[in-house]
Amino acid sequence: MRQVWQRARTRVSSYEPAVVIAFLVASAACFAFIRLMSEMLEGETMAFDEAILRALRQPQDLHLPIGPAFLTKAFNDITSLGGVTVLSLITLLTMLYLLIIRKRMTAAFVALSVLGGWLVSHGLKIGVARPRPELVPHLVDVHDLSFPSGHAMLSAVTYLTIGLLLASVQTSRAARYYFVIVAILLTTIIGLSRVYLGVHYPTDVLGGWCAGAAWACLCWLAGRRLIPDQELAGPMRAPVTGPRQLA
Length: 247
Fold this sequence. Notes:
about 250 residues, about 5% strand, two-stranded antiparallel ribbon, about 70% helix
């Protein structure tokens, strides 16, 4: 009994805070996504969506976005960071880096996590089948459905999943924070670019962020259990229990 209690205290003190935070974030994100989707399907979010889209355009001409001309060009460049080509390249380069530093299981887990997230994103789009906004002219070409935003969700799936898993193989706390902060920053500005360019309702982007964040956190939790301890570092390492402890 004493050994069980000591083991539980060790797990709580060393690892549980990170696990609890990830679980709470995933749960909150899932709840927010379901609630948002429900409100959207009932038409409750349309007034909010249209107000934001109008606020980002010149009142006298909805073809013209607010702000200087370079801002439109900047958002055009930023939005490409959430495209399939760039995300695929980022994923491949990340896997190559992990293979170079001999983190083979982590590299394989990155590939499966990102691919799985992409499949979930496409499935949600087809299931909801929300048309693109027509209130304002689109500043980039789009041809698929609207909810959730593919750029917002796929960038969250890719950058957050990769950021969390890369953080898990770092020994420096500063490096771990760096990867997570960069992932959040990229996910945020890519989602904002989609609304500014008029190709998504704000709720599309919010839904994409929620679904992508939930997936990334769930992948991180799964990675702690499935990736071998020797490939992980610091507080991201899964607690040693059972057969591993005896070994």
